[in-house]
Amino acid sequence: MPGGAASTAEKVVTDFSDNSLLPELFGKHDSNLALIEKRLVVTVSTRGNRVSIMGPAVSADAAKSVLQALYARLKRGQEVAPGDVEGAIRLAEGRSPGGASVDDVAQQAVVRTRKRLITPRSPKQAEYVQRIRESEVVFGIGPAGTGKTYLSVAVAVEMLLQGRVDRLILSRPAVEAGERIGFLPGDLREKIDPYLRPLYDALHDMLPGEQVAKAMESGDIEVAPLAFMRGRTLANSFIILDEAQNTTPMQMKMFLTRLGENSRMVVAGDPSQIDLPLGSRSGMRDAIDVLGKIPEVGFVHFGEEDVVRHHLVTRIVQAYNENDRQRQVAQVAKRPKNGDEGG
Q: What is the pLDDT of residue 278?
C-alpha cells in the first residue's frame, strides 16, 4: 500500500461459525475474496473461520458487510455466484454509514418466483423493486443490462402467483432496427415474436415452461405488440411496456391510458437507444417531461454503474457514453461563435 494510505488503514476482523460454508463463501481458489479485494481495494486474509480485512476504514467495513451478506445467503441455502458477489459489493458501496446491512437491503427487495429467488444487485435495483411494489405507474430509465425489464417481470410474476393481479401483460413496440417486418418469413405472429423474445426469456427464467404455456393459453399471461393495446382497459393486471424509448408520444399516451382498477404499469427503456425515424420524438422522453411532476408516478434512473451483466458490458457502456460525450463536445466546438457568421 502506498505510504500515505498506510497510515489510514484499518484492520477489521469477523468470524463465521459454520466452517462447512467457508469454501463456497471464499470461492474456488479464493476467487470471491480476490474479487472483493480488487473492487474495494482491501487486503483479505483468512485463518480458520476468522477473516481479517485491512484497508481504509470505509472500504474495510464494506468488505466485512459483503462477506456477512454472502454468508447469510449460504445459511439460507442459497448459492453464491460471482454475480452475487458483485451485487453485494454494489450494495455495500451504496450503503449509508450506520444504515441497514447489505443483507437487510437485499432481503427487503428480494423477489420470489416459482423457479428462483431474485435478489437486487445494486441500490438502484432495490429502489426499483420497492417503487414497483408501492406505485401504480413506474418508469425504469437507463442503459442495457441494469435489470429494468427482468426485475419488472419478476415482480409481476410474484404478484400473479400471490393472486394480487389476475393477468400479466407484456408488451413492446415492434420498431424495426435495420430490418423490415414485412420481409420476415411467416405469419404476423412469427414476424412479431422475435421482437418479444426477451420477454419470453424472462418469463421462462422465473416459471416452469409448462406453466408459462398454460398461462399464455388461458390468457393469464399475454405477450403482445404495443399496437394490440389500443382500445382496451386493463383492470386487475400487471402491464409492462419494454423498449419504451421506441414509442411515439401518441403511442405512449395510448398505453398509459389503458390503466384500469387494481392495475400496475411499468415502463422500461433506454433513451440513448432510440430506433425511431430520425427527427421523431420518443414517447418515453415526452412522458418524462409531461408526467415528471405527478407524485404518484415513480421514476427510477439507472446509470452505467448499475449494469449487472458481464463486467465487460459495464466497460462497453462506459466507452460508448464517453464517445457520445466527446462527439457532443466536438459538435459544440464546431459551431460558429457570435460574430463569426458571414466573416
A: 85
